[in-house]
DNA sequence: CAATATTATGCAAATATTTGCAAACAAACA
DNA sequence: TGTTTGTTTGCAAATATTTGCATAATATTG
């Protein structure tokens, strides 16, 4: 402890280093105290508070008055929401929210964009969410009015989701109002395609069992294509990107009967 | 207890921590006494009273005159349970390991004891694990040679697992070599019983579809009983506790044909 | 019913958090 | 090099929460 103190006192410390030390401390003691950290890391309590807020947003700990305590017993890896805070995804998430109404049944596939949407849902909203994504279920743990059905199957250690025969069979037992579909690529002619065969099959099953499909894609993925076919472009009802829907590039999708947001 | 006292007396304590300790105590003793807590946690009785009211509002306990008792037959939150009895759970985990051989198919239910076992598995072991526990699947993410099937169903926000019709149906599609069953209570006459109805049903389904059943229980749960029946005591093959298997109290189980470890 | 113990409420002091702001600093670019 | 842009950090005022105490209300017991 003294070593840590000396080290921190003498040498300059990167912000990332500080965050790491906070996470380490939480892992060790199950808690951190704001003032202690402030002294230990030689920064103001304001900074520590902001750090804790940041880590809390990522789901790595739980901010409480005066410090922070350990979050859920779910592995941090499942909760890492590092890549979802990008500006683009926030914009898409905001746009998607207006389609989601209390009481609906949502089917949500695994991906950083859909995870971003889920993490921006209002805390008290009442919904039924069906998903095969572990990060999404870890977020929804804290939503008291959301009933969550998790779709079982074989764990896919790369996408943090389940895939395979059991997953697809399980999906077919549901019927959702809206499918929120984070997609790899979409092209008017080729349709929606994906990078992972198993996930493509899951996406297809989700589409088939949902009344309305809302596809989520960053602008750069438009017109691209990947190895595995999911569905035709006009199988979707709404396409949300981070750009202005009146952009010329998007006209083709509109003509195909897809609502652009 | 003395340690707790000293700790609390010396070091500053977050409010959130205090609330956790109250819930832990409830989980352990089924009750808390207001004045005791006040002394133990070094705050006024008013504060404890407000704490109890807060927890009672959340449904984690039931406020009664002079303290609080265990609330509904809902388990305290997993988070608050995970630190209880850790030493015992480590011992049980070590004993359980000798039954697990490479190549086996394991069916594992949700609970802190089974989670402890999984986290002590050797990193390179090759297994197939079927589970409905989110903490367990999050641990197994890092095991390259373990194939994981996750059993879907409705998310149970208290136990971090899935339960319900879909879960039970999905379990019936598997056939496991070994079922690792963390249990609430076991009594020779009454059998194995549980606190949560849904989880009891899941446990039963797991038992029915496994060749060998290894039940895991801390010693204090022996001879106890809970509201929901799971199975007869002799339905299990092995019972592991943290105590020496030659203890007199355990003789009855041996006579019933259960191997004690 | 009276005596006693327990709980609820209002209040004020201490403490923590939020918010806006400005200085310091770093990265990108002409 | 200088300028711009964005991030990080500390400060301070406004706000909110927590806590213990005093007091009133309520429940328990004989």
Descriptive overview:
The structure is a homodimer of 261-residue chains. Chain A is α/β, with parallel strands linked by helices and 261 residues long. Chain A has helices spanning 2-10, 15-29, 34-41, 45-57, 76-79, 87-97, 112-119, 134-140, 165-171, 197-208, 251-255, and strands at residues 31-33, 61-64, 67-70, 105-108, 127-131, 146-150, 153-156, 161-163, 176-182, 185-187, 191-194, 210-216, 228-231, 238-240, 259-260. In chain A, a hairpin with a 2-residue loop joins strand 2 and strand 3 (67-70). In chain A, helix 7 (112-119) packs parallel to helix 8 (134-140). Chain A starts with a helix and ends with a strand. Strand 6 (146-150) of chain A pairs antiparallel with strand 7 (153-156) of chain B.
Oligomer: homodimer
Largest sheet of chain A: 7 strands, parallel
* Cross-sheet strand order for the largest sheet of chain A: 6-5-4-9-12-14-15
Return the string of H and E elements of chain A. HHEHHEEHHEHEHEEEHEEEHEEEHE
Could you name the ranges of chain A where pLDDT drops below 50 across 5 or more consecutive residues?
1-10
What is the CATH level 1 assignment of the largest domain in chain A?
Answer: Alpha Beta
Q: Fill in the CATH topology of the largest domain in chain A.
A: Rossmann fold
Strand content of chain A: 15-25%
What does the radius of gyration of chain A come to? Answer: 21 Å
The level of helicity of chain A is 25-40%
In total, the number of strands of chain A is: 15
Which chains have the largest interface?
A-B, 39 and 36 residues
**At CATH's second level, what is the architecture of the largest domain in chain A?**
3-Layer(aba) Sandwich
Beginning-to-end CA distance, first to last residue of chain A: 53 Å
Structural class of chain A: alpha/beta
